Amino acid sequence: MDLNDTPEQASHRQEVRAWLERHGEDAPPRTGSYEDSAYVDARRAWQRRLAEAGLAGVTWPEGYGGRGLGPMGQVTVNQEISRAQVPGILDVIGIGMLGPSLITHGSEAQKSRYLGPMLHGDEVWCQLFSEPAAGSDLAAVQTRARLGEDGTWTLNGQKVWTTNAQFASYGLLLARTDADVPKHKGLTMFIVPMDAAGVTIRGLRQISGEAEFNEFFCDDATLTEDSVVGGVGNGWGTALTVLMFERLTIGFGSEGFGSSAQLAASLAADPSARADTDVRLRLGEIVTELLAVRFNGYRALTTLAKGQIPGPEAGLAKVTTVNAAIGAGELIADVLGPEALGADLQWSYLISFLPGLKSAGGTEAILRNTIGERVLGLPPEPRLDKGVPFSELRAKEREAVA
Ligand SMILES: Cc1cc2nc3c(=O)[nH]c(=O)nc-3n(C[C@H](O)[C@H](O)[C@H](O)COP(=O)(O)OP(=O)(O)OC[C@H]3O[C@@H](n4cnc5c(N)ncnc54)[C@H](O)[C@@H]3O)c2cc1C
């Protein structure tokens, strides 16, 4: 493992650092409410500045406005943005996951229409995958798209947990277009304008007080023929590409959320906490976990530096970081007490927001299953739905229960 920059990486880092030193003071605050349109607009404008400086879409091909660098280029930009204590791009889902998937599966017309405004923050995108009965089992989506004789599609159904839908211009939506084939086969991916007739967005307010994600309903919404991404019936393949980019976008190689140094400093400021063996033990466990994440992150970085994609074991970083950060929040709550938390927005937000991250981007149980099967070689989960047409699955499930 060699964590030193190559000469090219060092010069890229120097360029990024110099730009951030020159322009960092124009950046909006790193945190703010996504329900405040002035804050969202400031973040859009900052994303435009980052894009124009080559600090957004770092891995996108130059032909689509990107910087054409490998994943290490992205890691360098992330590290420098975090060092400069400025916010990164607003549309992480669009630029990190949906844009690269459009580049892989979209038509040339779709790429030239959508990628530029996405990169510059003029049109934010959202991911319309999860449904009330299709989360971990994503291929069970029931939102239906029916092809009309005039070539247009009629969309009906519901999505849930859609981050940023409240200000997104477009969504990438996974729908069922054929219920008479096995569930992974009858799916198609669509581009949906969020202001289409028949589309309703409703915010979901979380315990943190924010409404960062939404419910999405479509009632006879009409989509044009050219809304299909990657071909009719190929939606599962396109969805897997999005999920692969999602794994690289969230929780990758970072110590994230509960910085151990910050936590230790908060606790050390309290003399009775400092002397309490139980507090010291819990703090030690949290710091050890976060250190393990950091060193595993170095392994993943080394894989990237060699031009390879890290395997499913990289998913462990998310599980461990989130659990350690939840442990940190609980420890802080026990030591400082609820009154102190009310005044300290950073900790109260952390404590109320983190449990949700156990589900985002794949739940802990699913990530552990994947690691069990694909890294440790344990027996796979039973798959009763294999080869069964989607329309017959309910009957098959009833048979299995009986
Ligand atoms: C902060 C946040 C942002 C999100 N943003 C988006 C978004 O923008 N777009 C989008 O489409 N979705 C989004 N999601 C949804 C997310 O993808 C789902 O929450 C996730 O896929 C899990 O699905 P579910 O919530 O329906 O839980 P379920 O799949 O119903 O799981 C419920 C419980 O059962 C367990 N479980 C399920 N299957 C198994 C199994 N086979 N073995 C063992 N245990 C199992 C799970 O681990 C979990 O504990 C977001 C979620 C969060 C929390």
Task: Annotate the secondary structure layout.
Layout lengths: L6 H17 L13 H16 L18 H13 L8 H14 L2 H12 L5 E4 L15 E4 L5 E11 L6 E7 L10 E7 L5 E6 L8 E11 L4 E2 L5 H15 L10 H9 L2 H5 L1 H29 L9 H29 L1 H13 L6 H12 L17 H9 L1
Parallel strand pairs: 1-4
Antiparallel strand pairs: 2-3, 3-7, 4-5, 5-8, 6-7
The protein binds flavin-adenine dinucleotide (FAD).
Could you explain the architecture of this structure?
The protein has 402 residues and is of the alpha+beta class. It starts with 6 loop residues before the first helix and ends with a helix. The strands form two sheets. It has a four-stranded mixed beta sheet with strand order 1-4-5-8. A four-stranded antiparallel beta sheet has the order 2-3-7-6, with no helix packed on it. 34% of the residues are buried. The chain has three domains: 7-90, Butyryl-Coa Dehydrogenase, subunit A, domain 1, CATH 1.10.540.10; 125-235, Butyryl-CoA Dehydrogenase, subunit A, domain 2 (Beta Barrel); 250-362, no CATH class. It is globular. It has helices at 7-23, 37-52, 71-83, 92-105, 108-119, 235-249, 260-268, 271-275, 277-305, 315-343, 345-357, 364-375, 393-401; strands spanning 125-128, 144-147, 153-163, 170-176, 187-193, 199-204, 213-223, 228-229. The model has no long low-confidence stretch (mean pLDDT 89). A hairpin with a 5-residue loop joins strand 2 (144-147) and strand 3 (153-163). It binds flavin-adenine dinucleotide. Flavin-adenine dinucleotide binds at residues 126-127, 129-130, 135-136, 161-163, 213, 356, 359-360, 363, 365-366, 369, 381.
